[in-house]
């Protein structure tokens, strides 16, 4: 599908920017940002690495709970990807878990440059309690969300598509489908990257309040 008015971001340009333990330490709240959220081990860091074609950018781990800070990656002057700490990992001490969740909630509520949420769920165990809370929060705050059903390589095509339909149906029934899209994804097979890129391009190139849309600023130069 071609989208003539949407600027295309070169995700390979992504560079590690900073890791913030709290909202106060995040980069300036300007430009556009997309956050990757999901349970520990869902594949957030792996998806960012696949998208940016840089296996070393975000740290991945077989040990859930690895990403404990809010990690920022810059795509240019004013665009960023954010790898959020995984939620719902049972073995982490309760106090630490509460602390992260407090920062996570604070980030999601306060961050004005946040343009969209990518919610990752293992295709074999989607729509857990925290996933629904995240989606419900996104839908009520009017933030668009894009669900990646990760590790789709673990299922054959038929069952993987059925899992996607089931998730879409459940979201509709729960009235959590407004502004929410769902796709299959596999980091090792690089499956679903184009769709993900399309969605991110839309969000990250949206004009901010008070700004003119890109096609009204200047005609694109011939390449
Ligand atoms: N087969 C398969 N394995 C995956 C996929 N995505 C991630 N993994 C594996 O799942 C494990 C967790 O991946 P991460 O990307 O570290 O997960 P995360 O969501 O960042 O985890 P936290 O940082 O703990 O929140 C690693 O062993 C990855 O190699 C996928 O699409 N397919
Ligand atoms: Mg991670």
From TrEMBL:
Necessary cofactors: Mg(2+)
Biased composition (Acidic residues): 212-223
GTP-binding recorded as keyword: yes
Domain of life: Bacteria
Entry keyword annotation includes Nucleotide-binding: yes
Annotated ranges, domain EngB-type G: 30-206
Record region (Disordered): 204-223
Keywords for the protein's UniProt record, in alphabetical order: Cell cycle, Cell division, GTP-binding, Magnesium, Metal-binding, Nucleotide-binding, Septation
Record-stated family: Belongs to the TRAFAC class TrmE-Era-EngA-EngB-Septin-like GTPase superfamily. EngB GTPase family.
Alphabetized HAMAP family for the sequence: GTPase_EngB
Function description: Necessary for normal cell division and for the maintenance of normal septation.
Protein name (database record): Probable GTP-binding protein EngB
Organism listed in the record: Microbulbifer bruguierae
């Amino acid at each position: 599908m071609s989208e003539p008015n949407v600027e295309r971001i070169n995700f390979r340009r992504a560079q590690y920017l900073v890791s913030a333990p709290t909202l106060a330490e995040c980069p300036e709240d300007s430009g556009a940002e997309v956050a990757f959220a999901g349970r520990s081990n869902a594949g957030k860091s792996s998806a960012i690495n696949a998208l940016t074609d840089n296996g070393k950018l975000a740290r991945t781990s077989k040990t859930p709970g690895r990403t404990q800070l809010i990690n920022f990656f810059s795509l240019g002057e004013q665009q960023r990807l954010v790898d959020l700490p995984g939620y719902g990992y049972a073995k982490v001490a309760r106090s630490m878990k509460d602390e992260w969740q407090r920062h996570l909630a604070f980030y999601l509520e306060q961050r004005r440059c946040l343009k969209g949420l990518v919610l990752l769920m293992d295709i074999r165990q989607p729509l857990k309690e925290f996933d629904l809370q995240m989606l419900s929060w996104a839908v009520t705050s009017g933030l668009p969300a894009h669900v990646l059903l990760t590790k789709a390589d673990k299922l054959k095509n038929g069952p993987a598509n059925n899992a996607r339909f089931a998730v879409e149906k459940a979201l509709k029934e729960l009235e959590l489908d407004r502004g929410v899209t769902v796709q299959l994804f596999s980091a090792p097979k690089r499956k679903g990257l184009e769709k993900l890129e399309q969605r991110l391009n839309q969000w990250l190139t949206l004009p901010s309040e008070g700004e003119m849309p890109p096609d009204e600023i200047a005609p694109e130069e011939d390449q």
